[in-house]
Design brief:
12 strands, 37% helix, 8 helices, alpha+beta, 4-stranded antiparallel β-sheet, Rieske Iron-sulfur Protein
């Protein structure tokens, strides 16, 4: 620490102690004040208050259970009939809004009840004494026995053994509330994954621009360009008979690269037209539409989770969580110079799933 120098009247320098030296500081000690005195809660001294708090916690857990049930009523009990893509269909939209309302309220009450219930239980009924314990390794049998005793003490202090109604409602809400989210997993993909095996592409189907529907000639696709294309036959469908579902599976990204930059595997030599290649736009991670093409690196990027595919190397995955390469659509040129498909995809489009390997083998056998 710094020391200030001063001069006595006789010219001799003197030290002043404007700042405490380290030696002096080391000699000074502050007593440990310890923990503040414990202030008991009303539930600690009044059994009626404790019983009331227990009933409140039980009520919150019951609300959570009822919220979970309300979610399933909306999910399974409300039937959305008709074409709910048509905003002019009031009946379908009414039922859809009702279903969304019940599902939203159900999840909200399920999470609110169990969350607030546990917090209220901890604040009003569980012991609130402050304590400090030194950590130590549990190695010997005595230490294990001590650890088991501590766990039993904790369980005893929660009061869960002597409050069976509270325990049972907690168990019910803990089991039911997460199932509301598990139920939604059913909608993350088709109930029957085999529907991803086939699309609207077939022998001789023209590639048309999305959304104009204009056919594309090979001469129109310049080096470095990219188009979002659909099968021409898709225009025969309407919303009522699966237009959106088929479009989601069939959408394709068309690009033209320098043929010398393409790495083509055996059996795919005639799948491109002078460097013009077509690949499914459906990301193989969770099915997001791939729409970003980087011309210099020939990389395709999924905006959802940044899966990156190399178009020059048959759209193999170079980064991100996608599980496999994008399926390639074999194309050729018809007699009028328009780009057409040679066949459907040779493998299922979209994300990987537990039956994918089986479907890939089946489609390979059919080919």
């Amino acid at each position: 620490m710094r020391q200030h120098m001063g001069n006595h009247s006789d010219g001799v320098k003197a030290h002043t102690s404007a700042v405490v030296t380290s030696q002096e500081a080391s000699q000074e000690r502050f007593p440990d004040p310890g923990l503040p005195p414990h202030a008991p809660r009303l539930t600690d001294v009044d059994s009626k208050k404790a019983k009331g708090a227990e009933r409140q916690v039980v009520l919150l857990f019951v609300i959570s259970i009822l919220g979970s049930l309300l979610f399933w009523v909306g999910y399974f009990g409300i039937e959305v009939s008709g074409n709910f893509y048509d905003v002019m269909n009031p009946e379908a939209n009414k039922m859809l809004r009702l279903q969304n309302l019940l599902m939203g309220l159900g999840v909200a009450f399920a999470m609110f009840g169990i969350g607030i219930g546990i917090v209220h239980w901890a604040r009003s009924l569980m012991p609130d004494h402050e304590m400090v314990e030194e950590r130590h390794a549990v190695t010997s049998e005595e230490d294990r026995a001590e650890a088991q005793e501590i766990m039993e003490t904790i369980i005893e202090e929660t009061g869960i053994k002597r409050r069976p109604l509270l325990r049972n409602t907690l168990i019910g809400s803990v089991i039911l509330a997460p199932l509301t989210f598990v139920t939604l997993f059913r909608d993350l993909g088709p109930a029957d994954p085999s529907v991803l095996k086939y699309t609207m592409w077939d022998e001789g189907v023209r590639l048309v621009r999305d959304p104009s529907g204009t056919p594309i000639k090979a001469a129109d696709v310049t080096l470095g360009s990219a188009y979002h294309v659909l099968p021409e036959t898709l225009s025969t469908l309407t919303h009522e008979n699966g237009y959106l579902e088929e479009k989601a599976k069939s959408v394709v990204l068309l690009m033209r690269l320098d043929p010398s930059e393409l790495n083509v595997s055996e059996g795919r030599e005639d799948w491109n037209v002078d460097g013009i290649i077509a690949y499914s736009k459906v990301c193989t991670h969770v099915g997001c539409p791939i729409a970003l093409y980087e011309q210099r690196t020939h990389h395709l990027l999924c905006p959802c989770h940044q899966s990156t595919f190399d178009a020059a190397n048959e759209c193999e995955v170079v980064f991100g969580p996608a599980g496999h390469a994008l399926p390639q659509l074999p194309i050729r040129v018809d007699s009028e110079g328009y780009l057409v498909s040679q066949s459907d995809f040779h493998e299922p489009v979209g994300p990987g799933y537990w039956e994918r390997a089986k479907h890939v083998k089946e489609m390979a056998g059919e080919a």
